[in-house]
Amino acid sequence: IKTILKTNKRPGVSYQVLSNPEFLAEGSAIHDLLAPDRVLIGGDESIEGSLAIKKLSWIYEHWVPKEKILTTNTWSSELSKLVRCT
């Protein structure tokens, strides 16, 4: 996705691609969304990436305790989802 966006980027437009995998269990998806045991957010290891992670964390903080919001880089976030699903 990031490569496609970079290829088609317009002047003056900035963005960050974040990884925010869900950890939902069958039969409890609504509960898992409303009261997750953790939220994982991954992004670029850059100033812009850190700012984007902070902004998404701020949104989650409206209903998820801050200590349950974990942040990392994009690769680790995506790997975490793959490991959890195996």
From TrEMBL:
GO annotation (BP), single: glycosaminoglycan biosynthetic process
SUPFAM superfamilies reported for this sequence: NAD(P)-binding Rossmann-fold domains (SSF51735)
Annotated ranges, domain UDP-glucose/GDP-mannose dehydrogenase N-terminal: 3-49
Superkingdom of source: Eukaryota
Gene3D superfamilies for this protein: NAD(P)-binding Rossmann-like Domain (3.40.50.720)
An example Gene Ontology CC term for this record: nucleus
Catalytic reactions on record: UDP-alpha-D-glucose + 2 NAD(+) + H2O = UDP-alpha-D-glucuronate + 2 NADH + 3 H(+)
GO molecular function terms noted in the UniProt entry: NAD binding; UDP-glucose 6-dehydrogenase activity
Protein name as catalogued: UDP-glucose/GDP-mannose dehydrogenase N-terminal domain-containing protein
Organism: Rotaria magnacalcarata
